[in-house]
Each structure stands twice: as C-alpha cells, then as structure tokens.
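A common beginner's mistake is to predict each chain separately and then try to dock the pieces by hand. The better habit, illustrated here, is to supply every component at once so that their relative placement is modeled jointly.
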Amino acid sequence: MVIYLDGKYVDSAEAKVSVFDHGLLYGDGVFEGIRIYGGNVYRLDDHLERLEMSAKAIMLSVPLDRAAMSEAVCETCRRNNLKDGYIRLVITRGVGDLGLAPWLCEKPSLFIIASKISLYPQEYYDNGLAIVTVPTRRIAPDALPSTVKSLNYLNNILAKIEAKQAGALEAIMLNQQGYVAECTADNIFTVYKGEIFTPAASQGALKGITRATVFDIAKELAIPMREADLTRYDVWCADECFLTGTGAEVIPVVKLDGRVIGTGKPGPVTDRVRGSFRQRVLVEGTRT
Ligand code: PXG
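With all components supplied together, the output reads:
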C-alpha cells in the first residue's frame, strides 16, 4: 500500500509519524473519512471544505490548498489502484515537545490512506439494526464543536464500548440536555407521518456529508425534511429510523433500547432514501 505522507508517496511500512506528534500525544488534529465508488471520489470538495473548516476552528493550517489536496487524494487512490474503498485524510498538529503548546509544533503533518472499508454485514441493510442509548454523552458544543471532525474521539469510543457491552453495533449519544445528538460514527434520522427529522448541529451532531446528501435526496423526492430536537421517545415512537455515515451509507434501524420501531422492518421512506443514495454514489463524484 502506498501512503501520501507530507508531500511524498511512501510504502506503508515507511509511513510513520513521530512519538512527539501532537496528534498522537493530545489528539490535536483533524480528519476526514471519504469513499470512492467506481473510481469516483464521493463529494470530495465537500469533505475538503469540512476539513478546512475543522482545521480553521482549531487554528491549524492546512498544508495544501484545495486543488493540491484534491490532487493528492486522487493520486493516492491511483497509486493504490483503488476504485472502491475508503480514504482517510489526517492533519495532525505535527511534532512538538511534551507540553500542550501547539505553537511549538513547527509544521502540521498530512497523510492520506486509501484502503478498503469494513461495512456492516448485509443482513443489517436488509433487516435493520437494533441499537441502544448509551450513558456517555456527546461532548458539549461549547467544549468542542461537534462540527469539528477532530482526532478526539474518546467519548465516541467509550460509547462504542458501551454499545458492544449491550450487544449493539451502534449507539445513540445524547447531549447534555438529554436530546438525541447522533450515533458514535453516524448521524440519525427519524421518519414520522411522512416527514424526515434529524438533530441539528447545535444539538451535538456532526454535519455529516451523507446527512447533507439526505437533505438533497429528500428535496428531490419531495419528502418533507427538517432539523428537530429529538428525544429517545421520538425515536422509539417513530414510524422509521435510519442512520447515515460515510462508512455505513444509509442503514435502517428497527429497534432502540428494546422498543421495536414502526413495523420492525426497514420502512418505505428509508428504502427510497437508500435507493436514491445508491444511485447517486455511482454517478456523482470526482473522477480519479
Ligand atoms: N457523526 C460522527 C461523530 C462521525 O464520526 C458521522 C456522524 C457521519 O458523517 P459523514 O460525513 O461520514 O456522513 C461521522 C463519520 C466510519 C467512520 O468508519 C466514520 C466517521 C469516523 C470514523 C469512522 O464510517 N465519521
């Protein structure tokens, strides 16, 4: 495997960062997870824009401009002959000393991995996921904006451990007020009386690229959709529920906290959104 690392394409065995990198020492950095379908990088510009904004929010400079970044992503895919897979783009604060001070880190480090992805098993797309609500809360937006896709995923990881302990593959994280924020690596949606609802970023949701696609799909299919404050009750009593993420794409949820959602089978709105998503990824995207 060939990795892009700070301007060079190197073998994965040589792709190493320092133990003094603040990305490792403090989770000081930002990242993106991007998909490539049939040689087209899905919504690359949107991902690069989010990366730039995440970096701006933590006062980290992106080493390359948009065009050069785009080219580096495509070239990494080409060098690995990757047509379908998952791209991880990471910018760390770079090498510093053992103190927190980011201004002592001379230059940020940028690396790009173009690899395969492990998806949820197909049966969950066909039959839906059973998920749980976990005790670990989403970090409050006034502590760390949920819109920043940072290298600090520890609370999501704790939530993921709690999900596993409860026998679930994904989990709802609530915000400090007890409203549904999102899942550990996916945005969440409910369908109620023909309308789609999803928590706002102000409630602790990441502005997911797949989530943005669902807004576009809803518009195209003339399905009413809006952001709303959701409680667990709203999810238990929804007609349908689904999750979205770069890795998960669009996946139905049929149970939350032991309560069957709707009919207990993936619903018609979820199916339409999923169908439209599958179409879009095949035709949209930046050709590598
Ligand atoms: N919320 C959180 C907290 C996330 O980390 C999403 C929502 C969905 O956003 P996108 O832009 O992907 O539609 C994410 C996605 C994976 C994976 O394997 C995904 C994420 C992080 C790590 C792994 O799908 N972020």
